[in-house]
């Protein structure tokens, strides 16, 4: 809501397109962090009800990623497909961002109950483990995007949060093994 309000009240700064693209990207990465934090929080605090929010948060993360991509394609590139392809080839951080979006796409497409039934629980769960690859691509996208301005505070912060969420899973898996 803040981004919409800021856009309509002309409070996005000197470069509103960049502010909108970056803001949507920030919310995408925040949504991914929250989605991956659900399981550790649910287990550590014995709150099984949190599980209900994981799929919803994942879908909202995809919505923000889609808006981030659309804002880039429309506001930066004028929806010119050849310019977008050229930009992807020229700037690796955009290529990695597209890879992140490509990894999110099948997860969003199969995040509905009908897809779970059609795929079967085991195959659906295997497909949705792709979510563990997305933080690596998303963080690389973020780091490389900020490299030009030597501003690494936010990418470091989100990388640390992803490391905690994914590290907790690795620790838990090894903790469960006998001996």
Automatic annotation (TrEMBL):
DNA damage recorded as keyword: no
Segment forming the signal sequence: none
One GO MF term: electron transfer activity
Chain's role: Part of the MsrPQ system that repairs oxidized periplasmic proteins containing methionine sulfoxide residues (Met-O), using respiratory chain electrons. Thus protects these proteins from oxidative-stress damage caused by reactive species of oxygen and chlorine generated by the host defense mechanisms. MsrPQ is essential for the maintenance of envelope integrity under bleach stress, rescuing a wide series of structurally unrelated periplasmic proteins from methionine oxidation.
Name of the protein this chain belongs to: Protein-methionine-sulfoxide reductase heme-binding subunit MsrQ
UniProt record, GO biological process: protein repair
Membrane topology: Multi-pass membrane protein
Keywords: Cell membrane, Electron transport, Flavoprotein, FMN, Heme, Iron, Membrane, Metal-binding, Transmembrane, Transmembrane helix, Transport
GO annotation, cellular component aspect: plasma membrane
